[in-house]
Amino acid sequence: MSSRIEQIIEEIEEYVESCRYQPLSTTKIVVNKEELEELLRELRLKTPDEIKRYQKIISNKDAILADAQAKSDNMIAETQAKVQEMVTQSEVMQKAYAQANETINTANQQAQEILDSATQDANNIRLSAISYTDDMLANLSQIMSTTLSDAGEKYNSFIGSLQSCYDVVNKNRSELSPQASQAASSAVDDLEVDTLLEDDED
After folding, report:
1. Other residues' Cβ atoms within 10 Å of the Cβ of residue 53
2. What is the pTM for the complete model shown?
3. CB 3.0–4.6 Å: which of 25, 35, 166, 181 could bond 174 by disulfide?
4. What is the pLDDT of residues 172-196, one digit of tens each?
5. Which 8-state DSSP code applies to residue 24?
6. CB atoms within 10 A of CB 46
7. Mean pLDDT across 113-134
8. CA angle, 198 as apex, 196 and 199 as ends, to 5°?
């Protein structure tokens, strides 16, 4: 929509175009002074109002631009704050992940160390038990060997003593009665033959 000043200027131009040229001239025209002055007077009156209106529009434009700039600055500041917050959260999450991984690795390492230590202790206990059992069996074997040796010696000594007594008895009998001794010897021989026969039958 055009302003009143623009309309007045257009009216002046139309008026000038409608005026007649002076005789014998192509540049000078004959105008109605009062009509032209009326248009010019209205133009002068309207000019301050139009200027104020344009100044107001310009002022409003500046205010709108300032408001838009302020909103833009606020949006940029908020965006930067959000970006910084996201970056901070990302760094915190990365640190949390790193700490979690470190904790897991430490726990795994400690668990492996405990398992290795328990395995080593079990092996040591097993070796100690085997060594202790072997020592006990060795001592038992030594005791049994000594017992058998002592029992054999005592048995041989007992047999030797018995044989000696038997020889003395036979000798005394032979000295007392040679015939009885011979008969006893025959009886002993017959007894030994019967024993041998029984052993063969078995």
Report:
1. 14
2. 0.34
3. 181
4. 878 776 555 565 556 556 655 565 5
5. T
6. 17
7. 79
8. 65
Per the structure block, which two tokens stand in for 32? 């109605």
Collapsed DSSP state (helix, strand, coil) of residue 26: coil
Q: Please work out, in degrees rounded to the nearest 5, the angle formed at the alpha carbon of residue 10 by the alpha carbons of 9 and 11.
A: 90
Q: Which two tokens stand for residue 124?
A: 């040591």
* CA gyration radius, the chain: 73
Q: Strands 29-30 and 20-21: what pairing?
A: antiparallel
In single-letter form, the type of residue at position 50 comes to: E
* 4 within 8 A of 50, measured Cβ to Cβ: yes
Residue type, 71: K
Residues pairing with 30 in the sheet: 20
Is there a contact between 20 and 30 (Cβ–Cβ < 8 Å)?
yes
Structure-token pair, residue 166: 């038997």
Helix, strand or coil, per DSSP, at residue 21: strand
Helix axes 33-176, 4-18, angle to 10 degrees: 140
DSSP designation for 64: H
Tokens of 76: 């940029």
What type of residue sits at position 51?
I
What DSSP designation does 27 have?
A: S
d(CA 138, CA 140): 5
